[in-house]
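Dear H.,

Thanks for agreeing to be a second pair of eyes. The structure we're designing against is below in token form, covering all 224 positions.
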């Protein structure tokens, strides 16, 4: 890993995060938000990939040190997520990242649980000017889309049993109904977590590569 662990202040509490910076020292800041597994190696590698593309990437530890390796344990952590604490952690991550970003507007991107949290973060922080949601889901996280400060890119899977294409379409429609900009793509024939190259049962290289290309282009457009 090219990055390092750092400590964040989160409204009276503390949490850790993984920070990856580009060779130039600072780039447009992107908050990277974990799947239900926790702050695992895959999410850190995504931060490193952003840094290699010139971004400063920060992944807050939403589970405060806990990780899961099996779906049952991951689901328990997912459902036990303290939304009030998550809000503090996301605000703290945005504040920290602003001090390390070359731009005044940040990006937020998340995967699975993190996709929904990325939307949530974008409604909590006016500094987040662009949001990318990879197949986001969490039943207890209810973003107020009217508070979005920038556009949303949604990337979803056609065979997703957790976040169906209809859920993606409904989310897209709700964002537009709130008067905000969104662009959603559903990749046919691929499964939930198609971007996670550490999950061979779900990973789909062509879809993942296209989604990564779209994500980079989206942030480069909206985080000048």
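And this is the sequence the design step returned. I haven't edited it by hand at all.
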């Amino acid at each position: 890993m090219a990055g390092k662990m750092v400590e964040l202040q989160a409204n009276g509490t503390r949490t850790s995060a993984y920070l990856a910076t580009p060779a130039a020292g600072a780039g447009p800041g992107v908050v990277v938000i974990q799947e239900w597994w926790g702050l695992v190696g895959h999410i850190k590698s995504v931060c490193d990939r952003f840094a290699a593309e010139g971004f400063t990437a920060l992944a807050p530890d939403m589970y405060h040190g806990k990780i899961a390796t099996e779906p049952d344990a991951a689901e328990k952590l997912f459902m036990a997520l303290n939304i009030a604490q998550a809000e503090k952690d996301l605000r703290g991550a945005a504040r920290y990242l602003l001090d390390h970003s070359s731009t005044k507007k940040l990006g937020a991107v998340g995967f699975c649980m993190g996709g929904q949290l990325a939307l949530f973060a974008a409604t909590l922080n006016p500094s987040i000017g662009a949001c990318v949601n990879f197949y986001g889901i969490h039943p207890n996280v209810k973003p107020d889309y009217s508070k979005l400060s920038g556009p949303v890119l949604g990337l979803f899977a056609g065979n997703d049993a957790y976040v169906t294409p209809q859920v993606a379409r409904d989310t897209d429609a709700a964002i537009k109904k709130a008067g905000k900009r969104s662009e959603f793509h559903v990749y046919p024939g691929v499964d939930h977590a198609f971007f996670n190259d550490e999950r061979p049962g779900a990973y789909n290289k062509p879809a993942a590569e296209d989604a990564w290309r779209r994500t980079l282009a989206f942030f480069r457009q909206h985080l000048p």
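Two observations from my side: The two ends are 27 Å apart (CA to CA). The chain has one domain: 4-222.

Warmly,
E.
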